[in-house]
Amino acid sequence: MHGCPHSAALPDPEPEALAETCPECVVLGQHPVQLRKCLVCGHIACCDSSPSRHATAHFHATGHPVMRSFEPGESWRWCYEDRSLV
Q1: Residue 36 maps to which CATH number?
Q2: Three-class DSSP category at 35
Q3: Is the dihedral of CA 37, 41, 45, 49 positive or negative?
Q4: What is the pLDDT of residues 14-60, one digit of tens each?
Q5: Which InterPro entries match (predicted)?
Q6: DSSP count for the chain of H helices, then E strands
């Protein structure tokens, strides 16, 4: 876990409303580059390469520290608190 205490006990919930894209991007008429899933609540949001960086915004709004890639074939996780892959 590379020293991150935030990811060990996370539940990895189902995505909110079986999301297939970033709901905030849909409202804004934007297209996400890649998707991330919050491992605390299941919220789906766009990555930092997307125009509005909704995954990072979700962390700042909720304090939920760990997201994982929601892209097919990817399973890595990012801890915003520790600024590291876990």
Answers
A1: 3.30.40.10
A2: strand
A3: negative
A4: 666 566 889 999 999 999 999 999 998 989 999 999 999 999 999 99
A5: Znf_RING/FYVE/PHD, Znf_UBP
A6: 2, 5
